[in-house]
Amino acid sequence: MIVIATDSSACMTRQGAHDLGAIYVPMTYTLCGKTYTERFIGANGDFVPLLEAEPDPHTSQPAVGRYLHTFRTLRKAGFEVLCLTISSRLSGTFSNATACAHDLGDDGIRVVDTRTTAIGLGFLVREARRLITAGATLDEAADEITRIRDRVKTIFSVSDMAPLRRSGRLGPVRQSVSTILNIRPLLTCRDGAVVACGITHGPNDQLRQLARAVPQNASEVAVQYISEYRAARDLAGMICEQRGGEVMMRKLGPVLAIHLGVTVLGVMWFEPEA
Question: Whole-model pTM?
Answer without folding.
Answer: 0.93
